[in-house]
Amino acid sequence: MKSAHVRGLSRFLILPAAGLAAGLALSFLASPALAAGANSKIGPGVKHLLYVTDDVEMDIKIYDIDRGHAYVRTLKLPELVNDLEGWRKKRLANPPAGRGAKGGQATKQGARGPGGGRGPDLASRPLEATIRGITGDANSGWLWFTEDKVNKIYAYDFVHEKMVWAIDIGKFEGAEFPDRLNVTRDGKALYVPIKNSDRILVLDSRTGEKLADHPLHTNPHNTFIGEQGRYVFAGGRSGGPMYIFDQHTHKLVKEIGPFSGPIRPLTADPSESYFFANITKLEGIGVGEVATGKIWEVLHRVPPEREKYPQAKTDPMPHGNQPIHHGIAVRPGNKKEVWTIDDGWGYLYIFDYSIMPPRWIEDVPLFTDITKVEGPDHDRWIQFSNDGRFCYTPGHITDANTRKVISRDIAVSEKIIEIDFRDGVPTAVSGQNGGVYPAGLK
Which of 101, 225, 291, 365 is the most buried (most CB within 10 A)? Predict the structure, then answer.
């Protein structure tokens, strides 16, 4: 039907990884995080639960994957709600002078209107959160999330279901706009891209204290944690290479790229040999080989039957936003598949990365009628269940084996993780763009 075209790129830089092997050896000999204990509300047996942040309700909803994603219960977040109410009162008393002021005006929610804090009717609008990232650790039984309007990181104990702490990142020399954070494989450090301050903060996951501070003048936007515990991958929405950090020393060890445009959502294969990314204005995926620094841009066009409707690519787009390829994840399991989303035209594109560069193998339609607005929201992120059976996008649950949309019955959200339990004790968590992280250290 179609073929993917490849553009090979040779620009790369690899920095020396001094002390990397020694650091890894010492870290894996270290004792794991404190035992999380058991959540009495989870019940006996093995459970695979989906934790879905809900910006509209300002809470986290839990769904049982094994029971057809049946709703379980809601985790209320009064601390977040109170912070947002305080933000609204302050905003009404001191309206910002223009675009880009603290509070996430340039975010998607802000552009749509509700909860974004724009316009004179802020007081009458329903208040909404803008959760930018969520990450979890099965060793400690904690999860962390960021919210841009209140400029905070929250630490939540999901075993005892209570908030542990919240910090305003402005305490770190005025840092502003915490984005898609991630916790390291050993659960000890948080990598927090600070988009409006051109920095990546590395914080102690238990206390929130600063461990490292990396200036990256590219609007740091997204991060991904390597499943082997070696690397942290980070990219910026205004350009630059893929930045790769050592998970234990927190030092920058590699820069690979740049690509033809800024790096957007990103992921890596389980061995940390390759990373994959959406690139602004690229119809397809960017790929990097960690060992050699070689990069490719694999091009892929929308199926021709949808291009009959040019109104779908108007701006604002009825089905998506720019860049239209925004969402990527490696599917867990034995099949070497990387999935990316074209939310403008309503497709998941699947590539086989058992060969390099990856080869396109299939398109999966998310909806059928391109002439109608789909949503309450757009599909801008991809996540998988830990067994690789289900693919989650904000508006859909797709069976990854049959390639069919099977449900739309969970809260519309871009920020979700799976947490697995045995007799109430956490055994594994998922990443936000693929990745499976069992309790204990490998």
Answer: 225
Question: How are beta strands 59-64 and 70-76 bridged, if at all?
Answer: antiparallel
- pLDDT, one tens digit per residue, over 122-180 is 878 899 999 999 999 999 999 999 999 999 999 999 999 999 999 999 999 999 999 99
Q: Are 234 and 216 in contact (CB under 8 A)?
A: yes
Question: How big is the CA angle at 30 (ends 27 and 32), to the nearest 5 degrees?
Answer: 110
Maximum distance among all Cα pairs of the chain, rounded to whole angstroms: 59
Q: Give DSSP secondary structure letters for 388-437.
A: S-EEEETTEEEETTTTEEEE--S---S-EEEEEEETTEEEEEE-SSS-EE
Task: Give the burial class of 239: count Cβ atoms within 10 A of its Cβ; 0-12 exposed, 13-18 middle, 19 or more buried.
Answer: middle
Question: What tens digit of pLDDT does each residue of 165-181 get?
Answer: 999 999 999 999 999 99
DSSP H/E element including 340: strand 337-342
**String of b and e for 66-81 (b: at least 16 CB within 10 Å)?**
eeebeebeebebeebe
3-state secondary structure of 84: helix
Tokens at residue 20, please? 């990397």
- If residue 78 lies in a helix (H) or strand (E), which one and from where to where? helix 78-93
Environment class of 200 (CB within 10 Å of its CB; exposed 0-12, middle 13-18, buried 19+): buried
Q: Is the pTM of this model over 0.90?
A: no
Sketch out the chain's domains with CATH numbers.
Answer: 5-30+38-438 (2.130.10.10)
3-state SS class at 310: helix
Q: Is 21 helix (H, G, I), strand (E, B) or coil?
A: helix
In contact, 237 and 221? CB cutoff 8 Å:
yes
